[in-house]
Design a protein that fits this description.
With 188 residues, the protein is of the alpha+beta class. The protein has one domain: Phage tail proteins - horseshoe like beta roll fold (Roll), CATH 2.30.300. Helices cover 15% and strands 36% of the residues. The chain has 4 helices and 9 strands, in the order H-E-E-E-E-E-E-H-E-E-E-H-H. Strands 3-4-2-1-7-8-9-6-5 form a 9-stranded mixed β-sheet, covered by helices on one side. A hairpin with a 4-residue loop joins strand 8 and strand 9. It is elongated and about 95 Å long. It starts with 6 loop residues before the first helix and ends in a 10-residue tail after the last helix.
Amino acid sequence: MARTLTAPMEAATLADTICAILLVEAMFDSGAVRLWSGFGDLSWNGQTWIGAGNLLGLGTVEESSELRATGLDISLSGIPSDLLSLALNEPYQDRPCNVYLGALDVNTGALLADPYLIFGGRMDVMQIDDSGETARITISVESKLIDLERSRERRYEDADQRIDWPSDRFFKFVPSIQDAEIVWGRTA
């Protein structure tokens, strides 16, 4: 799949020296958790991203020319207790999660261009390894294409039709014709 970078991001990738960074945004009911692969706070897109440094790990971002879903594992080690309680107590499955690639100016530490979305998907399974001294959270993020593999639980019946179209009575008589005796080719 062809990627189209913005002109500033393309110029940043062609510079002699840059510092590539990753930004991870995970949405929870209580708010978004925004982390980046550097130290300190980073401001971008009107949001503050918390530096996770080397504690933030990212699996391989795959692309395929085929139409198939790919996944990504994101891990965070040495996490504070407030994030651990968030992981334990708040629903997370099927919530959006985005990963961006950005570039920093080596001298000033400023963003050279708007970061580029390299993976967008939905959180699936979270694994927590707590050894007592340190904790590590690994979350699997599935591509939005995973929805193509899920079965649809819809029926050809009146109640199901009215979920989308409350006034439509198209399937109203389906139960009554189910056991009806229909005589073909002769008079009754």
